Amino acid sequence: MTIEEISKGRDGMDVDGDEIEIKQGIVELGFNADYLKLYYGKLFPHAEMFKWMSYGNDGKHPACDQSYFGRREFSFTLENDIYLRFQSFNSAAALENSIKEKCPFKIDIGPVYSVDPAKRHAYAQAGDNVFTPVERELIFDIDITDYDDVRYCCSGADVCSECWPLMTIAIKVIDTSLRDDFGFNHILWVYSGRRGVHCWVCDGRARRLTNEQRAAVTDYFRVYKGNDNSQKKVSLMGPSLHPFLVRSSEILTPFFEEKLLHSQNLFGSEERFEKILELIPDESTAAELRGKWLRSSTSREDLNAVRWEQLKHCLLVRKTKAHGLRRCFEEIVFSYAYPRLDLEVSKHMNHLLKAPFCVHPKTGRVCVPIDPDRCEEFDPTTVPTLSTLLEELNREGSRDDTENEWDRTSLGKSISYFRSSFLQPLLKSCKEEMENSHNAKVQQSKNSLSW
Fold this sequence. Notes:
Layout: E1 6-8, H1 33-42, H2 46-54, E2 72-78, E3 82-87, H3 92-102, E4 106-113, E5 133-135, E6 138-143, H4 165-180, E7 187-191, E8 196-201, H5 204-207, H6 211-220, H7 243-263, H8 270-277, H9 283-294, H10 300-317, H11 325-337, H12 343-347, E9 353-354, E10 369-370, H13 386-395, H14 412-450
GO cellular component, one term: alpha DNA polymerase:primase complex
Protein name: DNA primase
GO molecular function: DNA-directed RNA polymerase activity; metal ion binding
């Protein structure tokens, strides 16, 4: 094992943003290595993860690439902040045995490389392009901490029922576009275990995108362009909105008006409404609203709705105001509600992302899939935790009428969703793609012989 493979700290690692804070011994919510050993031994869906990462290449079809799974990088985070990079496995059993033996506090999944990543040093003298990523799911990482300037209920890694809907609306906007605009079908949304969501786009077309193509896809979603020092963070250019932005606005505006406006009390103080007034380019309009709100004696229950309607009237109804105020209305909604993606995560094949069904070492929560069609029902505070799962196993210990241990716990429905709604349709598609590719090669061979 080399220094590159075992390291302390994060230098040189391109991983998702959920920081791990591991202390020796017991971690928050009863998270410790002994509990994790039981989880990996009884509940973690090893076989399903192998099936997913194989994409149909674990069968006997002549089009199968038997080396495919063995060229995938896995990274393990062990206790005491030790990282094992470039792990690879040639079978489902090898993956399962290594996980059970090493009991990683976190598992990250990387790309499929041109050669076995564990043997990359053997190819070091052969040239720059021998060891290189050749396939990787198109991934997205959305973190609630990136909304700290527009949420007032929580900050940092804390989330609650008032601000979590920002994640829900992000799922709706991005998932709809990935399916309708790009034609992707096999999309897996996963709770990060603490403060955000991850998206895995697993269609063959998506996995084979180059870095340049990935950058183009992420740029398509790039609306929120500001930073901490920017006053205006969203600029919707052009005489009319792109159809994607029109559709996004139809999702975001009702959410902003019906939920976010009130849950975050956006007009509840001078400091908060000044942030909104700063987004209005016409100074006379902003001054008029400011004066009205400073003199306002509206009851607290109606404050946000009344002030928002007054702002809308100034921006949307009046005919004499400066050009661009209607667009300003849309920019305000997008500034507060549009998904804030970590774009660098999506642009490069070699980014590592936490595997589904890991247990977050800070919260003890399992990184379970989220159904995008029912994402508004998802509540991060009710996600199964390591300690509750083990309690459920102990409580139901006498039952032997289930095929899998997880069916005796609250994790069962998440694994069932993963298998039936994501994995089975994905593998069916992979089989069809292999069959079509094989038949095309056979036909090409016949055509060449007929000459």
